[in-house]
């Protein structure tokens, strides 16, 4: 039985990585166990670890759900100077999505449920309300 998950991203400069991901996630880390490592609980039981080291080429993307993809895209371009990226959708896919890179080349993506009823159901499930 699985009950938690972690995903690790490596950055060459942990101070800059800490700052960038704190801005990206809009919150301070939940756990800093030692130098060269910071960790956020993104949603209950789902942790993002940022570790100092050599970034992995070709991995990812780490993709996270947002309620308003266009607003989040604007925030990322403004606050983190993320380069322009396209938002995609397909009729048979229930979400629209995008992918961009952090300053170290790690691939990150966002997605938004098109049907807001489904989005609410997913949030309630994650929060244990179902």
Percentage of residues in helical conformation: 25-40%
Average per-residue pLDDT, rounded, comes to 94
SSE succession: EHEEEEHEEEH
User: What would CATH call the homologous superfamily?
Assistant: 2,3-Dihydroxybiphenyl 1,2-Dioxygenase, domain 1
How can the largest sheet be summarized? 4 strands, mixed
User: What top-tier CATH class fits best?
Assistant: Alpha Beta
Shape: globular
Contiguous helical run count: 3
Please give the radius of gyration in angstroms: 15 Å
Could you list some keywords that capture this structure?
130 residues; alpha/beta; 2,3-Dihydroxybiphenyl 1,2-Dioxygenase, domain 1; four-stranded mixed β-sheet; 35% strand; globular
Structural commentary:
The protein is α/β, with parallel strands linked by helices. It has a single domain, classed as 2,3-Dihydroxybiphenyl 1,2-Dioxygenase, domain 1, CATH 3.10.180.10. It is 27% helix and 35% strand. It is built from three helices and eight strands. The protein has helices at 14-25, 69-80, 116-126, and strands spanning 5-11, 31-34, 37-43, 46-52, 62-65, 87-89, 95-101, 107-113. The strands form two sheets. The protein has a four-stranded mixed sheet with strand order 1-4-3-2, with helices on one face. Strands 5-8-7-6 form a four-stranded mixed sheet. Strand 6 (87-89) and strand 7 form a beta hairpin. It is globular and about 40 Å long. The protein starts with a strand and ends with a helix. The mean pLDDT is 94.
């Amino acid at each position: 039985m699985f009950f938690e998950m972690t995903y690790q991203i490596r950055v060459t400069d942990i101070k800059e990585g800490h700052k960038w991901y704190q801005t990206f996630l809009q919150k301070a880390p939940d756990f800093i166990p030692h130098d060269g490592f910071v960790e956020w609980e993104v949603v209950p039981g789902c942790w993002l670890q940022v570790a100092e080291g050599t970034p992995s080429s070709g991995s990812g993307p780490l993709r996270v759900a947002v309620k308003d993809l266009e607003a989040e895209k604007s925030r990322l371009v403004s606050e983190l100077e993320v380069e322009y990226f396209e938002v995609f959708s397909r009729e048979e896919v229930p979400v629209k999505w995008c992918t961009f890179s952090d300053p170290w080349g790690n691939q990150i993506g966002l997605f938004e449920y098109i049907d807001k009823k489904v989005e609410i159901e997913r949030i309630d499930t994650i929060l244990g309300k179902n």
